[in-house]
Write a structure and sequence with these properties.
Layout (H helix, E strand, L loop, with lengths): L4 H10 L4 H19 L12 E7 L5 H17 L4 E9 L2 E8 L5 H13 L13 E5 L7 E6 L5 H16 L4 E7 L4 E7 L1 H6 L4 H11 L1 E10 L2 E9 L4 H5 L2 E5 L2 E4 H4 E8 L5 E6 L15 E11 L5 H18 L6 E7 H30 L2 H25 L5 H30 L8 H27 L9 H5 L1 H28 L10 H5 L3 H15 L1 H19 L19 E7 L6 H16 L4 E8 L7 H6 L9 E8 L9 H18 L3 E6 L10 E6 L3 H17 L3 E6 L5 E8 L1 H6 L4 H12 L2 E5 L10 E6 L7 H5 L2 E3 L5 E3 H4 E8 L3 E4 L2 E10 L6 H12 L11 E3 L11 E6 H31 L4 H6 L5 H12 L5 H30 L4 H11 L1 H16 L8 H39 L3
Parallel strand pairs: 7-24, 30-31
Antiparallel strand pairs: 1-3, 1-4, 2-3, 2-28, 5-14, 5-15, 6-14, 7-12, 8-9, 10-11, 13-14, 13-17, 16-18, 16-19, 17-18, 20-29, 20-31, 21-29, 22-27, 23-24, 25-26, 28-29
Helix pairs in contact: 1-14, 1-16, 2-12, 10-11, 11-12, 11-13, 11-34, 12-13, 12-16, 13-14, 13-16, 13-34, 14-16, 14-29, 14-32, 18-19, 18-33, 19-31, 20-22, 29-32, 31-35, 32-33, 32-34, 32-35, 33-35, 34-35
């Protein structure tokens, strides 16, 4: 037996080993265990710590907040290692700084760094500022489940009380993280003061607050010992019912106590005043699922959101929560109460993973059938065993690396099937060939199988690592897109390594048992291949090119023309470039922004008008209107900070569509169709309406984002205004908005210091009194053991006495001598306008202009190209020009500049990183092939067909009307490794024939004729394996690139590689002849 090499030695160790079947069983068990235990999610986990740091400085203007609070805090936080971006908003009286770390930074580590840095600099907090409040946000904070309670016979107060009990039940389920109640009116005790009654008893609101706070107190006063027993003493009392509050003595008049009820307009134990509205609307699509619902009806509602702990299986947790709620409905809740599941990411994750697992099985069976057709049923049995073992080991790798079972990890496995099967094919085919050889007749089949594996072992190892070299560099993609792509190179590379081991360990063992019927009969396997009509045509076509240079150059020129024609599809917009295509989800959001100063009721009215239109759409199952509070946010809302949208002029509508299989239109088409009418309705009320879809990949602030920088605030805003107009005038650009707030009127009540001092009243007392009148002051809790939520006792002036400036100026304050002084006596009021917020990005002042794309060209790339032409014509202050930036911020704000951000930035970043990955892959492949063939020219010949994949890829994208996306680029890069593998097969055979004495021209033609079969089989396996993901909107580009690229390159490289090799070797021979001996 000749030198076996690594592959032969591995095969020899396991071909008859009892450990081999045990290893197969163990691998399959590991795979089953991984499928069961790996948490299921729809999207991959992205570790990108975002921390909100909030500081209050009551009364300060945005400019002062920016100067004294925000900028110093940004400077401190910028010193922290690992911080990628710092965004900030300086609003009247408050500063919000958002710290975003690099992707992959551990959340706890990021939180510790921020806390440590801020606590070490507490001495720098200006007087009048609160201590920083730090809140960490991550993808695990996104609710996976939302349950909306509603009913015809329930109001917001009743629903809130029931929802609190349901929430308590949900919190008891294992692995539930944060839960929240949205909407409804919680219970409170409202003390509505009457200014007239207060004045009649010479009492001020501040005195009432102080008396109530003092009355609602109980302390553990101590203990004493008596008769060998220790007795504890509690002193004081809590409010436990409304009557306790009513009977508090707040003063004395004419020798008689004055009770709270004597000076209150009303004391109400009931629903708190609304600070938000949540309604549940029934859509036309509900007729398919809820016969009890009235189409178009809208009911008060309360939504419970449920988030999960990190690493928890979303499907299992969602099912556990729903089971607990269903049990509660049967035993504790009324039948006429509806609890609708308005979000269930556990269910969507299960549906997607189940669908992809079916595709995985389908791809495996399809490839097996293909092998059966080409090689035979017994041979396909070997492959059918090899694929599950390889996939099971790869799933084990996912489990070990902590990946979840999501659409990307499963796509990585499906994508790998067409590639990983090749190792098994090569080994099995060679074993079959050796079994058939006459000289092996009578020899032990195990010995023959080992030799067969050894013969193809080294080239197979080389080819496998060539494919890995093409795929693995994709793991270097940075930013938010990195975690989305990471499972593909990790999973595919792991699968390739395991497929190599399985080919050397399992395939020989299985072949020995399934292929015993071969007895060494003479084979004509190789010769018969050259007798078919296609091969004869190939020989007739290739032979003239070996003898006539003009035919070679004509052929190569034709290929170049084909390649250039295919590439022209991009500039001609027959194929559009986009980061990721639109997905087909079952939800989208309608974002409502009313002018600043709009009342909560008006915002809710606009939302109801929009809801009535949505309810009439056949694809809408239901919707939830949130006014004055944010709805359940998703990852997109997390990045855009939708959870902070809690102002009276803000609202959103969560729209739930029918399931994908119950509607023909995709969610993007529905959103695009509804947007114009929704915005038309919004314009009637002065509202800005945006339609927010769930992005298919990493979310951004908005699809189109223009960041405006400049040396002066006024010039910066004027420039942003012009950019906004460009957005509005560009066809296909929709949802245009900017981060400049509408002016909101306000009154500034300034204290006359002399008059106030004469009465012994300070500015702080005046501010506190107005705070009690307008917002109310919580003086404590009603200590009720039966109420699930806190019941605050709120002191506030009756609404009629706080709804005008004149009423506020009539507010009475207690002077030092006990007399009452009206506010207007010691203050004067001036009209003013609320100053707009100031935004920073990485310490530079910025104005954002945002938009989306929806039209003929739905990629931001083309919209930006259009707008760039108009942006060059903008008017700027004399002496200034507008600088354009794409990848980085301007280094200073001494000049006017505009940077494109949003999806454009991620697109640029991803395609740049993929380009670098592709260059790295080519270099690695070149080094590998140079090391094998010991030639600098031969690897170039082998790699030459790589661009030829575009001849198939781009026309295929145009035919399907698909975007050329990041996944398309992944398919192109991965295909490069497979093409190199095929080229290695051709060149290796050419050199084999030449070593056997065959002339160069004949060897080149013979290689394409004889070795085309394994090339075609590899390409067919890739096509069949990728075909099952062709219908997926996100990974369609990957499937098209693999399928069309492999078909085109296989057909063209069959001729191109031999021709190029012939030309290179002929030139080499000429140079050798000319060289002096």
């Amino acid at each position: 037996m000749s030198e076996l090499g690594l592959a032969g030695r591995i095969a020899k160790s396991f071909v008859d080993s009892k450990l081999t079947p045990l290893g197969i069983v163990a691998a399959l068990v590991l795979g089953i265990f991984a499928v069961i235990e790996i948490p299921r999610e729809e999207e991959p986990q992205i570790v990108v710590p975002m921390l909100d740091v909030m500081v209050a400085m009551p009364g300060a203007s945005p400019a002062e907040i920016a100067q004294r609070v925000t900028t110093p805090m940004e400077t401190i936080l910028r010193e922290i290692p690992g911080v990628e971006y710092i965004y900030s908003t300086s609003s009247p009286g408050a500063s919000l700084v958002i710290v975003r770390f690099y992707v992959g930074t551990p959340q706890d580590e990021a939180l510790t760094r921020v806390y440590s840095k801020l606590y070490a600099n507490f001495d720098r907090i200006p007087p009048g500022c609160s201590r920083p409040l730090i809140k960490a946000r991550s993808i695990d904070d996104v609710p996976i489940l939302s349950l909306t309670l509603w009913g015809k016979n329930y109001d917001a107060f009743q629903l809130r009380k029931i929802a609190a009990e349901v929430e308590h039940t949900i919190q008891q389920v294992d692995n539930v993280s944060e839960t929240k109640l949205l909407g409804g009116q919680p219970r409170s005790v409202r003390v509505e003061l009457s200014p007239a009654k207060l004045a009649s008893y010479s009492l001020a609101p501040s005195a009432i607050v102080a008396r109530l706070q003092a009355a609602n107190a109980r302390l553990e006063a101590g203990e004493f010992d008596t008769q060998n027993q220790r007795i504890r003493i509690d002193a004081g009392s809590f409010f436990t019912r409304k009557e306790d509050v009513e009977q508090v003595v707040v003063g004395v008049s004419r020798g008689r106590p004055v009770l709270l009820r004597d000076v209150a307009y009303a004391i109400i134990d009931g629903p708190a005043e609304p600070v938000a509205y949540v309604n549940y609307g029934v859509g036309l699509g509900a007729r398919h699922s809820d016969s009890h619902a009235e189409i178009g009806a809208e009911y008060p509602a309360v939504t419970i959101t449920v988030a999960k702990r990190k690493g928890t299986n979303a499907t299992k947790l969602a099912n556990a929560v729903l089971d607990r709620v269903a049990e509660m409905r049967r035993t504790e809740l009324a039948a006429d109460l509806n609890i609708t599941t308005t979000r269930n990411y556990g269910e969507t994750a299960k549906a997607k993973s189940d669908e992809l697992l079916k595709h995985l099985v389908l791809a495996t069976l399809s490839v097996t059938l293909l092998i059966a057709i080409f090689l035979g049923w017994r041979e396909s049995g070997v492959v059918l065993l090899a694929i599950p073992v390889t996939l099971a080991l790869t799933l084990g790798t996912f489990y070990a690396f902590g990946y979840t079972l999501n659409r990307v990890t499963l796509f990585a496995l499906i994508f790998s099937i067409g590639i990983l099967v090749d190792d098994a094919i090569v080994v099995v085919e060679n074993i079959v060939r050796h079994f058939r050889l006459p000289e092996n007749k009578g020899r032990p089949l195990s010995e023959v199988a080992i030799e067969a594996v050894a013969e193809v072992g080294n080239p197979t190892i080389l080819a496998t690592f060539a494919v890995i070299a093409a795929i693995l560099p994709m793991a270097t993609v940075r930013g938010l897109m990195g975690p989305y792509m990471m499972p593909i190179p990790v999973g595919a590379s792991s699968a390739m390594v395991f497929s190599l081991l399985v080919a050397f360990v399992v395939s020989p063992w299985a072949s020995l048992r399934l292929l015993r019927h071969y007895s060494g009969a003479s084979s004509t396997h190789g010769e018969n291949e050259s007798d078919d009509w296609a091969t004869r045509l190939y020989r007739r076509f290739m032979t003239p090119m070996m003898h006539e240079a003009k035919w070679r150059y004509l052929f190569l020129a034709s290929i170049v023309i084909l390649l250039l024609a295919a590439i022209s599809f991009v500039p001609l917009k027959l194929v559009q470039v986009k980061m990721l295509p639109f997905d087909n989800k079952s939800e989208f959001q309608v974002i409502i922004d009313m002018p600043n100063g709009t009342t909560l009721e008006e915002t809710a009215r606009v939302g109801q008008s929009l809801g009535q239109y949505l309810a009439q759409q056949p694809e809408v199952a239901n919707y939830q209107l949130y006014a004055g509070t944010s709805g359940p946010y998703n990852f997109n809302g997390l990045v855009r900070h939708y959870y902070l949208r809690n102002q009276a002029n803000q609202g959103d509508i969560q729209v739930n569509l029918l399931p994908v299989d119950e509607r023909s239109a995709q969610s993007h088409e529905i959103a695009k169709r509804l947007r114009p009418e929704l915005q038309k309705i919004g314009r009637q009320y002065g509202a800005r309406i945006k339609v927010s879809e769930v992005p298919p990949g990493p979310p951004v602030i908005q699809t189109l984002v223009a960041e405006i920088y400049g040396p002066y605030e006024s010039g910066q805003i004027e420039l942003a205004k012009q950019v906004k107009q460009v957005f509005q005038q560009t066809p296909g650009v929709v949802d245009v908005d900017w981060y400049v707030e509408d002016p909101q009127p306000k009154y500034r009540i300034e204290v006359d210091q002399e008059k106030a001092a004469l009465h012994g009243i300070s500015a702080a007392v005046i501010s506190s009194a107005l705070d009690t009148v307008l917002k109310g002051t919580e003086v404590g809790l009603l200590h009720s053991e039966t109420s699930r939520e806190d019941v605050p006792v709120l002191v506030r002036t009756v609404r009629a006495e706080r709804s005008s400036l004149d009423a506020l100026e009539s507010t009475k304050l207690a002077a030092a001598d006990g007399s009452l002084v009206s506010l207007r006596e010691i203050t004067h009021t001036t009209a003013d306008t609320l100053k707009p917020s100031i935004y920073h990005k990485n310490l530079k002042r910025v104005v954002y202009v945002t938009g989306d794309v929806a039209g003929e060209a739905e990629s931001p790339v083309y919209a930006i190209f259009k707008m760039n032409e108009s942006l060059d014509r903008l008017k700027l202050p004399a002496g200034y020009t507008l600088a354009h930036y794409n990848a980085v911020q301007p280094e200073s704000t001494s000049h006017y500049a505009m940077k494109w951000d949003g999806e454009w930035h991620i697109t640029l970043e991803v395609f740049r990183d993929l380009g670098v990955a592709f260059a790295g892959a080519m270099l690695l492949i070149y080094v590998l092939v140079v090391g094998w063939f010991r030639s600098f020219m031969t690897p170039l010949v082998i790699m030459a067909p790589i661009p030829l994949t575009l001849v198939g890829i781009l026309p295929a994208h145009a035919m399907f009307g698909a975007f050329f996306t990041a996944t398309s680029m992944i398919g192109f890069i991965a295909g490069a490794g497979i093409i190199v593998r095929n080229s290695i097969i051709l060149v290796d055979f050419i050199e084999l024939r030449r070593s056997q004495g065959m002339p160069l021209a004949e060897a080149v033609v013979d290689a394409g004729a004889v070795r085309f079969r394994p090339m075609l089989l590899t390409a067919a396996a890739v096509v069949v394996g990728a075909s099952v993901i062709l219908s997926d909107p996100i990974f369609q580009g990957l499937a098209l690139s693999l399928m069309a690229g492999e078909v085109a390159s296989t057909l063209l490289s069959r001729m191109a590689v031999p021709v190029l090799y012939f030309m290179a070797e002929s030139e080499k021979q000429k140079l050798e002849k000319r060289a002096p001996q």
